[in-house]
Amino acid sequence: MQVFLQTLVGGLSFGAVYALVAMGFSIVYRTMGLVNFAHGQVVMVGAYAASTFYMSSRLPFVLAIIVAMVVTGLIALVMERVLRPLENKDFDLMLIGTIGFGVVLESLATIIWGATGRAVPTPVGSQPLDVFGVRIRTYSLVVLGIAAVATVLLLIFLQRTKRGAAMQAVAMDHEAATAVGIHVGRSNAIAFAIGAGLAALAGGLVGPLLYVSPTMGGALGIKGFAAAILGGFGNITGAIVGGLAIGILDSFAAGWFQGYSDLVVFLVFTVIVMVKPTGLFGERTVSRA
Amino acid sequence: MIRFRRGRVVASALAVLAVGVGSACSAPGSSSNTNASTTGPIKMAVVDAQSGQLSSLGAWEYKGAKLAVDQWNAKGGVNGRKIQLDVFDDTGDPTIGTNLARKIASEGYVAMIGTAESAVTVAMAPVLQQAKIPSITSGQSPSITAVKSPFQFLNGPTSTTYDETLAKYLVDQKDLKSIAFISNNGSYGKGEHDAFGKALADRGIKPVDDQVVTTDQKDFSAALTSIRQKNPQVLFVGTEEVEAGLIVKQARELGLNATVAGAAPMGTTVYLQTSGAANAEGTVVSSPYLSNDTSDASRSFAQAYKTAYNEDAELHGAKSFDGTNIFLTAMKNSNAATGQQLADAIRATKYPGLLGTFTFDQTGVGIHATSIGVITGGKLIATATS
Lengths: 289, 386
Known about the structure:
The complex is a heterodimer of chains A (289) and B (386).
Chain A: H1 2-32, H2 39-55, H3 61-83, H4 91-113, E1 118-119, E2 129-131, E3 134-136, H5 138-160, H6 162-172, H7 174-179, H8 184-206, E4 211-212, H9 216-231, H10 236-257, H11 261-275
Antiparallel strand pairs in A: 1-4, 2-3
Chain B: H1 6-22, E1 42-48, H2 55-74, E2 83-89, H3 94-106, E3 111-113, H4 118-131, E4 135-137, H5 142-146, E5 152-154, H6 159-173, E6 179-184, H7 187-201, E7 209-213, H8 221-230, E8 234-238, H9 241-253, E9 259-262, H10 269-275, H11 277-280, E10 284-287, H12 296-309, H13 315-333, H14 339-348, E11 351-353, E12 356-358, E13 371-376, E14 379-382
Parallel strand pairs in B: 1-2, 1-3, 3-4, 4-5, 6-7, 6-8, 8-9, 9-10
Antiparallel strand pairs in B: 10-13, 11-12, 13-14
Helix pairs in contact in B: 2-13, 3-4, 6-7, 9-10, 13-14
């Protein structure tokens, strides 16, 4: 029982990070119908930026992450601006464009920060909590807490604000949205920036759990993408559930299947997607793509 | 409006992500296409991960090799010929390594330093053997000697030696017999797992727990909780630097206080930084190069390294420095021979290096002993063994 609970707790904190990555994928997809293949690399840049502000500029951890989110948000605005001429003209070229951006970001990170990577110290150094023999890292609680707050803020933005409603309208029918005076380009730019901000948040949070290196985006990107698909691509609630599910699945597969855990995780993922191709919370209304 | 079916987008997205993970940028290095010649510079290749999780190893290896080459070139090169050292990025991927082996064979390189990854070394060995290009690896998995290539050399001991020394210290000297394993399923991890397992079996000891993780796993809660319940005296970690650091960090957070033990990766700064100095305290390390302060040679190497790169030298830089010097010494002694002659000259070279005196046996192993160090106060300190 203790192993079960400990495994669950271990999976949850990584699951929260995957959920943030998945939400970034989803918000761009639901608005533009585009899979942003550079998303994993934006997570990596976010992780580097946050760790730099935290370790070198000695900013408080949370503030460092917020500054990193601004940095990646700006990068995303540049990306969207470059891709905008292709919007609704050549979708495949846009996809290739995002892949290109991913390669550029990885190379830039190597040039700026070097190929070796860095270890980020945990910002909350206190002893783990002991709950009936299950050890809960204080930092895991920080990750879960921040991820939860970010999720709630995002949902409020999308469902309760005018700008969020406009983005939903663009997602459903961008021609009709244009007809009623919504600026589609701006809406897309905001989606890209929010997606990148979420990526930086995920990267910043995962830094102290992992080791920050230029290639960390690959593994996080594919897990986050799988989480988004599992939850129902384009669905924010689905991204959260998908992220937590992948995190927990990962953790249990590691315990039960040891060296074969990756294989098992993706086999289970494949079976679920075969049975339910739209994912757990798949929406058919997001059909711009 | 352009509409795409969800299935198509998802399928293409998965395909692209898979390609993204599996491939990597093209390798840097010389693009000239000349074959081995007897005039002009002698071309040597460094093949190592220059990007990815294992890139710290690659960076150290290149720095060590470059330092040796620069010193030789400053003295006029080998029999009047300069040495040209080019670096190639295998990203730690055996497939890319195999392609690079073909590339360096076709571009006239006469010797190769690398790689630090056992799996890549094993993948490259047959191609290099066919092209008769000697290579000296920092990999230590027994699977490298199992390839039986006469062109494959090791600039350190195999895991068998590392782990026999470790078992001698832990079991014979310290009488610690309750030992749990955590190793990864990569070539290095499997080599460590099997070698330490055998060293224990020879002493009639069975590990109390034996957990295998994947090479890119991030959360070790399940494995470590299982180990914690067995309450072992020693946690043997058989993974590379970063993963070892993450494992030990999480082990301490989960309240696992066993003595951590392992081979060379645990003596590196990357391990120390990733785990955090407090978590790494007391780690028992088996390594052929414990410090920059064991001999005049290591002090002078460390000084030159510091001057060249403004950072402290460590095991992998020392290994490739030794390996490169052995190559160049063998080339000098054989009058810049290549192919089989060069391999024979390397095998005949007795070289007093930083890791000890190199005497190559038939399996290509040059060093046959390691020492024990313990991380004390954030530093690896040599310990007395009997």
